[in-house]
Every structure is written in structure tokens, then in C-alpha cells.
Write a structure and sequence with these properties.
The complex is a heterodimer of chains A (194) and B (244). Chain A is built from two helices and nine strands; from the N terminus they run H-E-E-E-E-E-E-H-E-E-E. Chain A has helices spanning 20-23, 151-154; strands at 40-48, 58-63, 89-93, 99-105, 121-128, 135-140, 167-171, 174-182, 192-193. Chain B is mainly beta and 244 residues long. Classes of the chains: A mainly beta (194), B mainly beta (244). Chains A and B meet through helix 1, strand 5, strand 6, helix 2 and strand 9 of A and strand 1, helix 1, strand 4, strand 5 and strand 10 of B. The complex binds fe (iii) ion. Fe (iii) ion (FE) binds at residues 159, 162, 164 of chain B.
Chain lengths: 194, 244
């Protein structure tokens, strides 16, 4: 029998400060697009370093399920509707104030591998100059009953769970959620390893 | 006490030492940006086991040539052909997957508003490339040899010549952003970004190799750079011969 040699995954390197040259073509701040089911929402985020200075040279990637809790991916075999044209991917560069904004639909609940409902959430990846490897976190919605039982939130020390919770803002009648991501400090955002 | 359930992840953990730590004192900008708390280990769910897929609707398939500008002008510098395969850790090809690349021009200058390096811009070179892997996981593009450039990390700091790569693969678990370097670059031993990874074999896999087979006579030097994304554990039946 032929044995294929095992080759460890290639090493990460920082995205550096000039990533827009290669990544800008897929910048997407309107994640859901037209004709997609669900409640329209906006997220207004801010990214701060260990000195509370805004980070103006980061890129934020969002991955989410649709309002039915279904990912646009063949690996999601849940029996749920998926609209033509829904992809669920967003990519936004932070601006001079370290801020990033996107609009989308609120995702539905996605089942875990053991069949339990997760709380609605966005998977959010960060890359920036100074980060040697990308970081992955999640954004959860306030006042969701499922937050109390969500399998991933249960893995987070209780005192740090609030770093993953969006806050409700009122803005132009479209439900808008605020989120400050702290790379360091007493409110350092939780990042995941999986 | 946390009710933190842990099912085995279908994706392999990274081999010890083959990925950089977030905080690396020699790389000054990591000091205020790297997380200082430990990462929280979770069992990946569908949210991490899926990820965005980009294909032919986004990118025109075929060889990407970065040396020609839209108005037909030729970029300055040594033409190079970069090719390789996108594979998982077990050597299986990752097909029809998007690679995004970007780089400085031959003089070491990026077409970017924040690049202050006193080196000429090239009106015929944007440094932007997008290419899909084929059915065997192969990719290739033609560009110019990027120049080295100074940066402010420490006194007389210069980055070795490199090309930035961004790859998604099949899932959030497999996302990779990396940099490809060139063989024999005298700056590599001094670069804090290249040297942030402990495992020397893992570092050396970031260095492309010069290749006669893809070198085009009278025209273009060939370099080969294979990329491996995190793979799944083998199914129990295969496990016996997968770990060597
Ligand atoms: Fe660079």
C-alpha cells in the first residue's frame, strides 16, 4: 500500500499593512444581498489595541448562516431552505477610526454536531499587521434565550462572555448592533482555537 | 464549573511549533495587538467546519499574468512564473479554490497609499493577482520578482522579498494567509516575521524553490511553492498508515 507523506499545514504569516491590494476585490459589506429571507440588521464594530488606540489597518471577515440557520456550503446537510444567491460571507477593512460596518440578515440557529441548537451568531475572523496568525471569534446577539445553553459560550469563562455579545443601538430604524473588539486589556475579546 | 463539551475535532491540531505564537517580541507591532489571554478551545461546529467557497463566478480561471497592465504595458523587473499545488496535510489536492496574492513591485514598492518607501511606482504593475486551483490542486501565475523593502520594525530593518498569499480552503478551519519567500535571500536570517515560527523545517517550507521545468527560455524564471492546508484526521480504517 502506498503511504502518502504527512506534511504539516503551511505556516501562517501576517497579512501586513498592504493587504487591500490583494483582498479588496472581495470586500463585501452587504452580506445578505437582496431577496434573502430574514430580519435586516446592521453591525457597527470597532477594533482597539492594547493601548485603546483604534486599529486602522485590519481586515474583518464574517461567515454566517442564513435566517433559517443554514450555511451556503455543501458540508451543511441540515434540511433547511437556502436562498439562491445567499453566500453569508463578508469582508470589511477597518477605517481610520478602527471602525467597520456591515449589513446583513440576522442568522438563525445552527445545530451542533450532537443536534443541539446553537444561539444565533456570526463567525468573525481578524487579520492585521502585527498579527502573525488570524484570530477567530464569534458575535452573539443580546437577549437571546439560546445564549444560556450555547455550547461554545459554555466553553468561555463566564466573566469573559460579555466580550462576545453585541449591544443594541438604535439607528435609522434598522436594528443596529455595536461591538468593540479589544485585542488586549481587561476586556480582551475571547478568541477561539478549534 | 463550565459545561464545556468537547467532541473530537475532525481537523488535525497543528503540529507543535509549526505555527507562530501571536506574541513575538522581535516583531514590534505584535506587542499591542496579539491577544494576551489564552485562546478558548472549542469543538468546531458547522460554523467552523464550513466556510466561503469562491469559484469561477468570481475569478476567471486560467493563468493569471500580473506583468501586463490593463492598457497592455509591461511591468518592470525580472519576470517569474510561480506555480505549485494546494494540498491538505495528507497530500490530497484542494480543487477549484481561490488564491489571492499581492506583492511589492520590482523596486520594493507597494501600490498603496500608506507605502512611503522612496522607490519608484511602476505604472504597469498593480501587484494584485487572483487565481483558482485546477482539478489537481495546481495553480500558477506570472509576475515580476518583488524587491526587498525597508520597514520601521528596528534599525535598518528590511523585509526579504516575498509574495503574500491568502487561501480559504473548504472551511473556516483551513483559512491560511502566508508569505512565500525566495531561495538564498540574505535577509531571511534577520527577518522577525519569517523567524517567528519555532520549527525550522516549517519556516523553510515558506521558501519557494527555483525550478527549471517551469522556467521559460529567454523569458521567465520558474519558482515552485506548494501550500498545505489543515487536514482532517483519517477515518479509523486508514489511520494505521497515515501518521508516518
Ligand atoms: Fe509585504
Amino acid at each position: 500500500m502506498i503511504t502518502k507523506p504527512f506534511m504539516p499545514a503551511t505556516t501562517w504569516q501576517t497579512v501586513g499593512p498592504f493587504f487591500s491590494i490583494g483582498l479588496e476585490r472581495l470586500y463585501r459589506a452587504d452580506i445578505a444581498g437582496a431577496g434573502v429571507d430574514g430580519e435586516r440588521i446592521r453591525v457597527a464594530g470597532r477594533l482597539l489595541d492594547g493601548d485603546y488606540n483604534p486599529i486602522p489597518d485590519a481586515v474583518v471577515e464574517v461567515w454566517q448562516a442564513n435566517a433559517h440557520g443554514k450555511y451556503a456550503h455543501p458540508g451543511d446537510t441540515q434540511d433547511k431552505p437556502l436562498e439562491q444567491g445567499f453566500r453569508g460571507f463578508g469582508r470589511i477593512a477597518t477605517d481610520d477610526l478602527g471602525e467597520f460596518r456591515f449589513s446583513t440578515v440576522k442568522p438563525g440557529s445552527v445545530l451542533t454536531q450532537s443536534g443541539e441548537p446553537q444561539a444565533p451568531h456570526l463567525v468573525v475572523s481578524l487579520m492585521m499587521r502585527g498579527l502573525l496568525r488570524g484570530l477567530v471569534t464569534r458575535a452573539y446577539f443580546p437577549n437571546e434565550g439560546l445564549n444560556a445553553t450555547d455550547q461554545v459560550l459554555q466553553c468561555v469563562p463566564p466573566a469573559r462572555r460579555s466580550t462576545l455579545l453585541l449591544s443594541s443601538l438604535v439607528e435609522n430604524d434598522v436594528p443596529t448592533f455595536g461591538w468593540t473588539i479589544h485585542m488586549q486589556g481587561p476586556s480582551e475579546t475571547v478568541f477561539f482555537d478549534f | 464549573m463550565n459545561e464545556c463539551q468537547t467532541y473530537p475535532s475532525p481537523f488535525r491540531k497543528h503540529k507543535q511549533g509549526t505555527q507562530p505564537d501571536h506574541l513575538h517580541a522581535g516583531y514590534v507591532s505584535s506587542m499591542k495587538r496579539a491577544p494576551l489571554q489564552p485562546l478558548v478551545t472549542i469543538t468546531p461546529t458547522l460554523s467552523e467546519l464550513t466556510g466561503p467557497l469562491f469559484g469561477r463566478d468570481e475569478i476567471v480561471a486560467g493563468e493569471c499574468n500580473m506583468t501586463r497592465s490593463a492598457n497592455g504595458g509591461e511591468a518592470q523587473g525580472q519576470r517569474i512564473a510561480v506555480s505549485g499545488r494546494l494540498l491538505d496535510e495528507g497530500g490530497a489536492p484542494i480543487r477549484n479554490t481561490l488564491l489571492e496574492v499581492w506583492q511589492a513591485n520590482a523596486a520594493g514598492r507597494y501600490l498603496h497609499k500608506w507605502d512611503q518607501h522612496d522607490a519608484p511606482l511602476d505604472p504597469n504593475f498593480s501587484g494584485e493577482g487572483h487565481v483558482l486551483t485546477d482539478d489537481l490542486g495546481r495553480y500558477s501565475f506570472v509576475t515580476v520578482q518583488p524587491g526587498s523593502y525597508p520597514w520601521g520594525n528596528h534599525h535598518n530593518a528590511w523585509r526579504p522579498a516575498h509574495i503574500h498569499f491568502s487561501v480559504f480552503g473548504p472551511a473556516v478551519c483551513t483559512r491560511l494567509v502566508t508569505q512565500m519567500y525566495f531561495p538564498g535571500d540574505p535577509l531571511l536570517p534577520f527577518d522577525p516575521i519569517y523567524n517567528c515560527t519555532a520549527d525550522s523545517a516549517a519556516r523553510e517550507r515558506l521558501i519557494s524553490r527555483f525550478d527549471w521545468n517551469t522556467t521559460i527560455p529567454q523569458s521567465t524564471l520558474g519558482f515552485v511553492f506548494d501550500i498545505h492546508l489543515r487536514g482532517r484526521y483519517a477515518t479509523p480504517m486508514e489511520e494505521g498508515h497515515d501518521d508516518h
